[in-house]
Amino acid sequence: MRKNIRVIRNTDTIVAFDQRTEGHIYLSDGDIAFDGDGFIHVGGRYDGHFDEEISGKGKMVLPGLVNVHCHSGEEPISKGLFEDAGTAALWGNALYEYSNLIEISPDALEASLTMMLGDLLRSGVTTLIDIAAPHEAWLPTLAKSGARAYVAPGFREASWHVEQSRRLDFIWDKGRGREAFARALEIVDSAREHPSGRLGGIVSPSQIETCSAELLQDAAEAARARRVPITVHAAQTMAEHEELLRRTGLTAVQYLDALGLLADDLIIGHCIFVDSHAWTRQRTELDLALLAERRASVAHCPVTFARSGMVLQSLGRYRRSGVNVALGTDSYPFNMLEEMRQAMICARIAGGSVFDVETSGVFEAATLAGARALGRQDIGRLARGAKADFFLVDLKHAAMQPVYDPLRNLLHCAAERAIDAVYVDGALVVEKGRPTNLDYEGALRQLQEAQDFAVRRLGANDPARRSSATLAPRSLPSM
Questions:
Q1: DSSP letters of 270-294?
Q2: Is the Cα torsion angle 350, 353, 359, 360 positive or negative in sign?
Q3: pTM here?
């Protein structure tokens, strides 16, 4: 007999899953019953046994969002430093020259992770993939948060070095890369065996250009032996695109296919610079068809790239080509609803039309497409038998008023401000905008100290020994 059954009664709007269309639909004035094992009832009147009743009047219930690409690590303390920076010779991207400058202590890593989790949960994320370097607090903090989380410990054989802000070089250490690979597999296995039942593992060679062909293939073999997904950053920058052309004569998508990685268990981080992108030298349109044919997924993270003037061309075009495009936040602000809004805006600008992608398409990318990328049919949907991962929106919130189409109001206007509560496995993980299981405020205090330390260390970590004022000048002069 099921225990601790709760009912959300007379819910104004339910964003439910329709088995016939395999998409989301609106249901009005219905009940939702759930427990720790999943949804028991969605829509209509529930007349069965229950232990607690919650009023759904003035509420909208939506499936939890699935974030397929985010980074904890030092990312949260990078906030405010390099948004106006970039390496002109590398198409304006700041990744290669600036990302290695941030120094973070082991203690601050836990605070960084806590902040990221708090922000993601508050924006309706219930499932996430965290791509990061391993640390002792990683699995315990993820489990404590109450989120459904996949760890993706990164490993690579080459590190980046930017010479005089004009050339990207690679410093190879294959032995160290193999050691990191072995350690990553141990962590993946530990996550899959975690007693919480909410953690999983993903095999994650960090970047396509920092791993040898042999390591990429061995990573895929290890993932497939464990029946877990693979994720890799690929086609994410023009510098990488040109480097792969120099080495192999192939685009990232074509190279992954040649190595046997391009399949339905692969999630490609970003996948912006395909052969048909306007910035590339190719004048072919092979990559999107290949992605669709192999059923690989793309993790689209528009905000961090839009900051550098880069955009996927376009979300709607990828979807119309049959590519499974899911969403991630990558870096700060770790706000999935704002990421969805940006995805819509960038798509319409890149596609040159308001019709490039609709609100429903972006919502599908943040839910059902993310579930498909993870090979799951029990998340990203409100349906009987699915996991009880969902969030409640206050339709009476000022940013949601007046209400004609509540999903449009949420994505175009209100974002996380209108979220009342978030549940994972039927357990409350956010209440009135506050994570219930995390010391979020304590993490914020600790991160300020961590950022102050990182700023003091910028010059020491810069090969050119530039000062922090030169590397990260403030937006306005100080008096």
A1: E----TTSTTSS-----HHHHHHHH
A2: negative
A3: 0.97
